[in-house]
Here is the input.
Amino acid sequence: MGIPSADWLVRPIGPVDEAEVSAVLAERFGVTGTVHDLGSQQDRNYRVRTGTGDYVLKIANPASDPAALRAQCAAVERLSDVMSWLRLPRAHAGVDGEVVQRLSAGGADLVCRLLDYVPGEPIMDSRYLAPPVVARLGGLAGRVVAGLADFAGVEQERPLLWDLRNALTVVETLAPHLPDQERAARVLCASRAAHTLLEPYADRLPVQVIHGDVTDNNVVCEPAPDGRRMPVGVIDFGDLGLGWTAAELAVTCASVLHHHGAGPASVLPAVHAFHAARPLANEEVDALWPLVVLRTSVMVVSGQYDTLLDPGNSYASVALDREWAMFEAAVSVPAEVMTAQLRHALGRPSAQLLPVAEHTLLPGLPDDVASLDLSVSSEELHTGRWLAPDAETALARAALTAGHTAVGTRHGEFRLTRTIVDDSVPAATCALGVELHLAGPAEIRAPWAGTVTRHGDTGVTLHTGGLDLLLEGVGGEVQPGPVASGQPLGTVAAREGVRVLGVQLSRPCATGGRPPRFAAPDLAAGWLELCPDPTRLFLAPDAPSAAPDDAPLSVRDAQQAVAEAELLERREQSFATVQEHYFETPPQIERGWRHHLVDTRGRGYLDMLNNVTILGHGHPGLGEAVHRQWQRLNTNSRFHYASVVELSERLTGLLPAELDTVFLVNSGSEAVDLALRLAWAATGRQDVVAVEEAYHGWTYASDAVSTSIADNPNALASRPPWVHTVAAPNSYRGRHRGPQARRYAPEAAATIRELADQGRPLAAFVCEPYYGNAGGMALPDGYLRQVYEATRDVGGLCVADEVQVGYGRLGSHFWGFEQQGVVPDIVTVAKAMGNGHPLGAVITRREIADAYRTQGYFFSSAGGSPVSSVVGLTVLDALRDEDLQTNAREIGAYLKDRLLELAERHPLIGAVHGSGLYLGVEFVRDRESLEPATEETAAICDRLRELGVIVQPTSDRQCVLKIKPPLCLTRQSADVFADALDDVLTHGW
Here is the structure.
């Protein structure tokens, strides 16, 4: 553009003496107060505190035009009119009525303005920005440009440094001066490539007055209830001027990129929100990422140059690392990929036709190429087979051994075989090409004319105008240079007896280079547009296009047939919404193995939540046992067969001798319901005492004794008159804390005796023997001994609800009641008992069980069926054979120590509860008041999910992380969880 550097290179001004500042305030504005230097890149900003309010005195750089400063003030007034809710730095006129005042300081003639101090905090650090915060930034940028759309108060006579229309000139002018010429060369290369992509749209992009700097450190924020800093105001209009409207969004997006964990896809919430406020035209979408690259390039070179001009300017020098981080993130993927991703996100995918193949790539390839299913739903990848490094090759070899002459993978498939577990970064799982595994030799021919280059030992690229064909696994002597359509390119090379040809199409990028073979899910749509499906190259040129279901190498993954959003909508329409799901935008989970889950895009998650699957997901022994039994017999327990007897004997063998009789049911709710009915029948009474803040089930009786307001906000008000409650024995935040928690038991016992004195003796006392709903908290020592004694003194029965805590989860004990040194009259168990299969049990004494006959007979259709009984037996076998209780004790103790160490460094952690792998991390806003950090806990769970960890809140206050993973959890995975939590608490959520 040929702009003389003197027109826009601005030397920062030095500090102005605070006494001079105070004098200017008094003389020019009639204001007195204390001043504090706020720092600036080129101007000088001072916060002014007075008895009536706070202001900012902005002393402008000598290069600033007073007319431009007045325009900034006018723009603020315009936005204040159209967005009255937005906090803005409105200007105050001086004693002479002018908003711009002149002064002399340090031998220079300067101008200044007095602005409202905008309360709130900027996002000056590089902590994590959550999607809602990024969306708010983008939404603000969109509303600001919409508010300034017809603002005509700027006459821009000279080019401006930050006007992205001048970006390449700025970079080319400043880059030679940078001390790090290696970085300078990278910035120059990236800027020129971005400028090349931008040029076709430059003359068509809308131009208007823009703020030019709606960024993380030019907004002010207030903390939301969840602790996230949400932008509520815009400051610093110093870059106001004419510019491309899309540049406003590019500037905002660039500012997101230096934040912890951010990548190019992190800007998508900002783009959506901007587009909602001010719709983007197609050419603006196509220009956006080149503008982001140019913005970050300008920031790098200008920041470096400012430190050369003013080495003592800490404001500029501190920003250098984050400016480089923005640039690195912006160029981490080709701009063409991000443009395609942006188009996809906004529902505007490009329709680009592929050249027609004049010759078949592999003329000898048979028509019956077998398709290798490597998706998350593959039937060939059970029992963790997908984790093997050679899983793909092994499946292909098996298919070839079975008689197929060729086996092909599928383009665009999210491969389970590429999933990585115990990693905070999603793996690159989306296939951008295909591989053909061949049983015998095969010749390769050019499908069209082009130019051949070689890379590596067996790599060949056929360049054809706007499309490259990349081949891996080519043998023979292939000479680089022009080739005709149909000309031989070599043969499929054999390595260790295997012939594999990798085939990939790619549209060239301005920055050059070859595309990756796989893409991460968050950028898969963008990469797939640049790397289209090469399947047609294996078909005869005159072959009709195959329908998706008939194309063996096309994507047919059932889980990808319906977009996640559409599937969630179908769920809401057909599945009662009172059956809630985890997370507002839940991942679609279709695979589990041990203590990991996998969604349809191949993202692996550490499952720290699933206490139902105590053995872990996909347990091979359990699957095989169910399969065998289902093939043999499945009926109901009125028939006589061995497994129901064996399971009953195994259960009673794990309990004190007097608990000798078993009922088998389908769930924990049914188990607790039946336990209460047994107590009613055995005692002839109905009154029950339950502990507050507990959950026992959803049937009539189990729901009646469930007192948790998290599960039912009306639980305490709606319970029937036969249910009575005692205080939750919470030693951390209850009315008796620490050593005083010993008072809970005598108080509960007194309540039981008082009810009897009032003519309402108990039928039962029901309680979890380890306080589960509060987050895995041990009952005070001796609590159950005293309460059980009082219950039995009045003729009642003691019910231990072991649904969550039983089966070795505590590590130190197989049953929770053992930790209290008591023996209940009735024990209920479920969840872990079936490892996800609907199975529960009630175990009691013979005379209590026999008393139920006064109520009729008991029958559960599926409870105790042959399949359910085999499930129960297999779970017990695995718990024993795999020594999972010991694992729970050892890994649980290790994990708890890690969590306690985190509590020493992070004040949000108020306490770490629990034993074994039944733990809870309680978050509080203040360790003295114990104010629950409810909203923060939910946000932390969302962030942990982004880092590959599934966990959820529990307790009536929903401020406790519920940590109840499968008992096969490893030390490595425990570290992954602790490290992820440390990351979130350190860098934000």
